[in-house]
Amino acid sequence: MASTSTLIYDVFLSFRGEDTRNSFTDHLYKALHEAGIRTFRDSEEIREGQELKPEIERSITESKASIIVFSENFANSRWCLDELWLILEQKRKRGNFVLPLFYGVDPSDVKNQRGSFRIEAKNKVKGSKWTPMKVNCWNQRGSLVIEDSKWTEDNVQRWKAALTEAANLKGMVVSGLITLYSSMIPSLQFTTSLPISMASTSTLIYDVFLSFRGEDTRNSFTDHLYKALHEAGIRTFRDAEEIREGQELKPEIERSITESKASIIVFSENFANSRWCLDELWLILEQKRKRGNFVLPLFYGVDPSDVKNQRGSFRIEAKNKVKGSKWKLLKVNCWNQRGSLVIEDSKWTEDNVQRWKAALTEAANLKGMVVSG
């Protein structure tokens, strides 16, 4: 962080209070809070007696990401428009993540300043830095005339440019929390934990490495999650998309893990039956220990306590050890809900099984999410 202040947030939440404070924005704030994302909103953080503008400016500059909730009366407020401009300035300067949400408004109206987003500076008084102006802001109830010394022609032009810039970003048209929770919350958890600069200069660099058991979730949950991350502008690696025919799987996956800034691990019923999944898990946690990478475990249709304690389908035991061999041939029992599955593989050594079990416990102790859709 550039600042050493204690006012440091993951997300700055910009919204028009009269439109959404006690409805959508309140639910959004609670959803972010429950997901462990430290979020600034003025009603929660600014105490009586503090000046609003400096506090908001500081909160924007000390947040890693911003959500802008565009609603009907957003453009009637110079506070909202100033916040918007400052948020985009941080995006340009530091590469901050910005997600526009269009709540009950058309993104094209924001982009082209039509309807309630139409603002025009009028009655300019020449020769003054802060020119008194009448600025017309249109909403669905007709024309609203606002007189404010800060509504200068220069400010109005930069606000209009900011509205266009924000509307051109990848965002979401929302009307409730179903879309929000399934798509935006996971994206923000990863994004707000990513460093601004990359450690690697390789061309194979991702924001997120997605680890999952293909037979369980490739064509269902993981596919939807990948699309949500992609739509949020988060560069995500998943093997089906990135590995070409003829390439060796393991080196490519190892490189992708080491060159990603964060990882998502989708634990599902048959995850522990795959040594590829278990090796990915161990490498992901190794990157967390070495570089402080962000890791988010998702428990899809499984109990986190079963992952933690290697019960049920996550129970693995090495048996029939052959002494005197570096790569010992073992029979490893992996239990799933359909009974006991015996896997024979020369890589299922006793040492590997022990480190995989430790990795399962470590991952299950991280802050994660139980998901079902």
TrEMBL record:
The lineage of its organism: Eukaryota, Viridiplantae, Streptophyta, Embryophyta, Tracheophyta. Pfam families: TIR. PANTHER family: TIR DOMAIN-CONTAINING PROTEIN, TMV RESISTANCE PROTEIN N-LIKE. This is TIR domain-containing protein. It comes from Deinandra increscens subsp. villosa. Keywords: NAD. The keyword NAD applies. Residues 7-156, 204-363 form the TIR domain. One of its GO terms (biological process) is signal transduction. InterPro entries: TIR_dom, Toll_tir_struct_dom_sf.
